[in-house]
Amino acid sequence: MSNWSWEVVAEAFPKIIDGLGITLGLTLACYGFALAFGFIWLFMRKIPIRPLRWLITWVMEFIRSTPPLVQLFFIYFAWPMVPVIGFTLNGFTSAILGLGIHFSTYIAEVYRSGIEGVGKGQWEAAKSLNFSKRQKWTKIILPQAIPPTIPMLGNYFIIMFKEVPLASTIGVAGILHIANSYGAENWTYLEPLTIVAILFLALSYPSAIIINRLEKKWNRRFDKKEALTRSKGATA
Amino acid sequence: MVHINAIIEIFPDLAKGLTITITVLIGAAFFGYLFAFIAGLCRMSSNVFLRKFTGFYVEIFRGTSLIVQLFWLYYAIPMLFGIELGSNWWAGVIAIALNYGAYMSEIVRGSILAVANGQSEAATALNMSRFQRMRLVIFPQAIRMMLPEFGNYSIQMLKATSLVSLIGMEDILYHGNIIRSTNLSQAPTVYLLVLLFYFILALPLIFLTRKMEAFSKKGVASG
């Protein structure tokens, strides 16, 4: 432990804290984008043309099973080089698009599971009561579909938070990026990287506990015996 | 936009990175499952110290990012203890294995706990020892619940291997980055091919996972 120096901690800590705003802001932006784009997938999967639906399913599978890091590089380095439609994006926007689209494919599954979780009888009831399409969704389906998805969506927020440091590879100055450049300048990675790890832990652990409580509460309320979500792993 | 010639030129360069990507994946998967079982079983141990310690490990690794853990293992550990992890291959494999081991240990624990209580009581009634109960009754039922999740996590681990390019390992992405830096206009072709490489590697895992899902549902009364 001889190499640990508190002076370095004292010097690096305020600098790293400065990046927290960007890290959290990027998390929110990516998450918002993913939530919105998730809906687009949901609607695209409803297109009544079978080959197109099949194609969209595979596009989603492709995005989900390839590394988000490569997708970030594609958007940041390759997109400006694509003829005609390509244009230059800064690191922050690239990260929103890259991570947002990557996670939207997961979010879309959450939406779908919520809607599919509404019992068949509920749809039939809506029909037999002669509800309009709008009434059916706003009065019957959505009020039952949304609550169970909330803990899952919360989980994805935490996962998103832990994926955001990937953006440091395309120059977004979040906490990891600052720690790395501090390390490179001063030849000490130990303290800055440890600070980053502790910051992540300090923010994600309490949120995970809150979401866990929320989940238990919902499960009790909806009389679910089994946990709906297992805290799904990070996606790297 | 995408020229056939360029593809033919780039393809073999990227393929050079396949060995690293695949060996890191296999190493990470092996150690990841190993850690998962050890940690998952330890968390159910009657020893308080063991339980708390593994709980601590799991929360630490689930609470921070893989990329931070990787950098920490690669840059900080040698500084802290004055030891080298041997090579960046080990740093990459151990980081991914520790991270996903922590996530999967929860799967192991959850699956074992999910086996109905009556099963364990029946085994006790049949005068089985603790070990027999685990090996013959609980485990065979728990493992079929774990398999699909393990399949999902193996895809996640494949995606995670792309991070080792950041600590200088010459995997597919690393070679892609090299080609891009020498020939910027080819970037779209390069990264599309890199993505395709990963997708082709992921395909068998995707189908395996679906198989396992079907397998785990077979012969089980209502899911």
Spell out the key features of this protein.
heterodimer; A: 236 residues; mainly alpha; MetI-like fold; 9 helices; 74% helix; flat; B: 223 residues; 80% helix
Textual characterization of the structure:
The complex is a heterodimer of chains A (236) and B (223). Chain A has one domain (6-221): Orthogonal Bundle (MetI-like fold). Chain A is built from 9 helices and no strands. Chain A has helices at residues 6-18, 20-44, 50-64, 68-78, 91-116, 120-128, 133-163, 175-186, 190-221. Chain A is flat. Residues 225-236 of chain A have low confidence and may be disordered. Chain B has a single domain (4-217), classed as MetI-like fold. Chain B is built from 9 helices and no strands. The longest helix of chain B has 31 residues, at 130-160. The chains are: A mainly alpha (236), B mainly alpha (223). At the A-B interface, helix 4, helix 8 and helix 9 of A face helix 3, helix 4, helix 5, helix 7 and helix 8 of B.
Q: How would you summarize this macromolecular structure in one to three sentences?
A:
The complex is a heterodimer of chains A (236) and B (223). Chain A has 236 residues and is mainly α.
